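Quarterly update from the structural biology core.
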Amino acid sequence: MDAPALPLVRRLRLAGIALVIAWFFVPGLRDWIPVWVPFLAFAALELNYLIGGLRDRGSPRGTRGRTPQASDISELGGEGWLEPALVRIEGQDVWLPVAGRSEEEVLELIEETRARLLRGEPAHEPEPLPEPSTMRRGPRLLARLEGVAVVGALAVVLFVLLPDRGWDGLDRDEQARTEALLSAEAGRIAGHAARVRCDAEGKAVGVVQHADGVAEVGGSNAFLTPGICFRLYRLAYENDEGPFSQTARAIAVLAHEAWHLRGERDEGVTNCFAFQSGVDLGRRLGLSEGTAERMMRLQLADNATYARSAPAYLVPGECRDGGQLDLDPESSRFP
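Predicted structure, tokenized:
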């Protein structure tokens, strides 16, 4: 006998569980699907179950649920137990399976039960346990697996996502190693020794500051937000390219602050230089050359949008291939 098809809502629920788990483990899936999509879908399915249960609770008793199946009747002890009757026999209240019996058959059953009670025997013979049924075992096993999957999905959230506290979740040695790497890369662009610290709250004299970093113009000290540092740590040491736009932004920010250390004060010009230097910087941190180029082109393309709220960061018109701000005019690559 073919197994019964799963209800649509149940299939969607299984698909939702699979999507939540896959979002964490399938490479590149996070770039295509925002984090709220799988959780919103899963929450909507669970809400559907809740609303459905509340509706069933308020529905007339006679119309609730499905009719008993053959396996249900077997577990009850037979069709007669679908409509039992409470009968008082020899001073005892006894339930009898009377469904489907004629009046004569019911009277015979009462007499048989009376005789059993007078002999000191139970009112009914113990019902044999129903034979194992693959038809029942399948849905039950699947329901258990669903429960395990739900627990697994929650465990992923609790023990994979939540414990990842970003930069603060790294031990001090990992933080120091990352700051040393970023300092070396900033110094390569600045042309002199530099020190990058992952704390944008740090204060220094003669700095320029924006949302993701702080740097001394012509100096040696720069500060990056912990989020930027953690993204670069994941790229450099865990080979995790992460969300495309976030990684592109982190590389551009480090290059931007490094150009301030080199002595450039103008924010728009600094951005132009940073987008160009970011290609080689991204490649040194673990990206392929093609990916690094695409990331910096994205940063340049998005610059006009971001600069609407901060016009000082808009790159000048000469920030183009062959323009006055082209760091490698002999190359056709830009940035």
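The longest strand covers residues 84-89.
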